[in-house]
Design a protein that fits this description.
Shape: globular
Strand content: over 45%
Oligomer: single chain
Low-confidence stretches: none
Pfam families: YmzB
Number of strands: 8
Radius of gyration: 14 Å
InterPro entries: YmzB-like
Largest sheet: 8 strands, antiparallel
Order of helices and strands: HEEEEEEEE
Helix content: 10-25%
Number of helices: 1
C-alpha cells in the first residue's frame, strides 16, 4: 500500500461511526472537466482496501479500491435512494492523489474527483 492510501484509510478510520458526505464527480474522458456529480451520505461502519488481481490484462480494473461499508443513501433531486449493498467503492489508479484539510479530504483519480467530509 502506498503512503497516500495509508493516509486515506487512516482518515477514514478516524471518522468511523460518523456520517460522511461523499461528492463524486466523474471526469470527462481525456479531460479534468467534471461531467456528472453524485451525492452520497454514508454512516461509516468499516473500511477495506482491496487489491486487484495482478494477473488480469484489463486496464479498466483499478489497481486498488477502498470500500466504505455502512448504511448509505444516494441523493437526487428531491429523492433519497438507499445504497444497494450498504457499501461504496472508490477505485484507485496509478494517478491517485490524496489531500486532507481537517474534516474534508479530496481524492483524485484519472476517472473521478471525490470530496469526502463529515457532517
Amino acid at each position: 500500500m502506498n503512503t497516500n492510501v495509508d493516509q486515506f484509510t487512516q482518515w477514514l478510520d478516524e471518522h468511523n461511526g460518523q456520517t460522511l458526505s461523499i461528492q463524486k464527480g466523474e471526469h470527462e474522458t481525456g479531460s479534468k472537466d467534471v461531467l456528472d456529480i453524485d451525492l452520497i451520505s454514508l454512516e461509516l461502519q468499516s473500511v477495506e482496501v482491496r487489491s486487484a488481481n495482478q494477473n488480469t490484462q484489463d486496464d479498466y480494473l483499478p489497481s486498488e479500491e477502498v470500500i466504505l461499508y455502512g448504511k448509505g443513501y444516494i441523493h437526487g433531486d428531491e429523492t433519497r435512494t438507499p445504497l444497494p449493498d450498504n457499501y461504496f467503492e472508490i477505485p484507485l489508479d496509478e494517478s491517485f492523489k490524496f489531500h486532507s484539510d481537517g474534516n474534508e479530504i479530496k481524492i483524485e483519480t484519472e476517472k473521478a474527483l471525490y470530496r469526502i467530509s463529515t457532517n
